[in-house]
Specification:
Length: 360
């Protein structure tokens, strides 16, 4: 396995890029430690697959370096990087048995059959494919075919990194949770460096120890699932992670006073001075009803099973709250409060408030 470093990385599909808008990947500097479980998370078109292809050697970046354990591999082809990749659609040989599919990467490298048998049997047991080893792959269900594809990446012990590019896209929803759990279990057992690319926040947050959130070719935040949810460093992260996403509201800041719709609200701490477009950010989970300085009219209630999502109109703004128990009727005017230590201020999309006693 290897530590992967991306240094001063940029990439454009234009012949002569001149501005940031010409780059599919803007400035990327990133370290992935050996043996970690990471996710690249972001919407379609944000640059996730471009970055993955640069790491794998399918693309050479316009600028910057890719290093494995400090060794520059930027211009090495894929077969010289010792990587394994699992794609959206299972890459297997339908005419071969499950055993032969799993054995193929090892046999292709000239390993003896005793070693091949030991590795294939071990990985098949981990993936719950032991009873299917002698069956042809063509007759298996899509989830089992994807398990084979995963197994072909896991069976080798000499890989620097295993990369998963939206591997559960074609899997039925009721099987996705099972495969996500299996992949997490496999990482804990084999301790391989794994990078999981997805636009699905649930997949990223349940698999990865560290999540890299991308938007428009840039990394907007890196953190644990808890860090990304509790303190989004960028408005995009607040929107993209959480269901529903973070409330992003207009506000005015004068010194230490923050006002929303003309009412003073308490926030987590001091706001860094500067110029720009200011917004208040608070997750629906931290909006409470029945007490507080604000007044909101209930305009919609959605029962999502575990709780209710309540839309309120406060002045000219719409605010969402998550609540349990009795549902207020449409049209009712209620007292509303924001939990102050979970209420942030953002300038031009970036967080500029700080926890009491902290630093921006």
């Amino acid at each position: 396995m290897a530590k992967i470093t991306l240094s001063n990385l940029r990439h454009s599909y234009e012949a002569n890029p001149k501005t940031d808008q010409d780059y599919a990947l803007k400035q990327i500097d990133l370290d992935w430690d050996d043996g970690g479980a990471y996710a690249l998370l972001g919407p379609s078109g944000c640059g996730k697959t471009t970055l993955l292809n640069i790491i794998s050697g399918l693309l050479t970046p316009t600028q910057g370096q890719v290093l494995f354990d400090g060794r520059d591999v930027t211009h090495l082809p894929p077969d010289k990087r010792e990587i394994a990749q699992v794609f959206q659609f299972p890459v297997i040989y339908d005419t071969m048995t499950v055993y032969d599919n799993l054995a193929f990467p090892l046999r292709n490298r000239g390993m003896d059959e005793a070693t091949v048998k030991q590795r294939v049997t071990s990985i098949a047991e981990m993936l719950e494919l032991g009873d299917a080893l002698n069956r042809r792959a063509a007759g298996l269900s899509p989830d089992n075919k994807q398990k084979i594809s995963m197994g072909r990446g896991l069976v080798r012990e000499d890989v620097n990194v295993i990369m998963f590019d939206e591997p559960l896209t074609v899997i039925d929803p009721h099987l996705k949770w099972k495969l996500r759990s299996k992949l997490k279990e496999l990482h804990q057992r084999v301790r391989a460096t794994m990078i999981y690319v997805t636009h699905d926040q649930t997949e990223a947050l349940t698999f990865a120890d560290q999540v890299v959130v991308m938007d428009a070719g840039e990394i907007v935040q890196i953190g644990t699932p808890v860090e990304l949810f509790e303190r989004p460093a960028h408005i995009f992260v607040g929107h993209f992670i959480g269901s529903p996403g973070m409330n992003v509201l207009p506000c005015d800041v004068q010194g230490d006073t923050v006002r929303f719709e003309g009412v003073e609200v308490a926030i987590e701490g001091p706001v860094k001075s500067g110029e720009g477009d200011l917004k208040l950010g608070v997750r629906p989970e931290y909006v409470s009803l029945g007490d507080g300085p604000l007044r909101g009219e209930v305009i919609h209630v959605a029962d999502v099973g575990r709780h209710n999502v309540i839309d309120l109109r406060i002045g000219q703004s719409q605010v969402r709250a998550i609540a349990e128990g009795a549902v207020p009727p449409i049209g009712q005017v209620m007292a509303v409060a924001f939990r102050h230590d979970k209420t942030r201020v953002y300038r031009d999309g970036h967080i500029v408030s700080q926890p009491a006693g902290g630093a921006v």
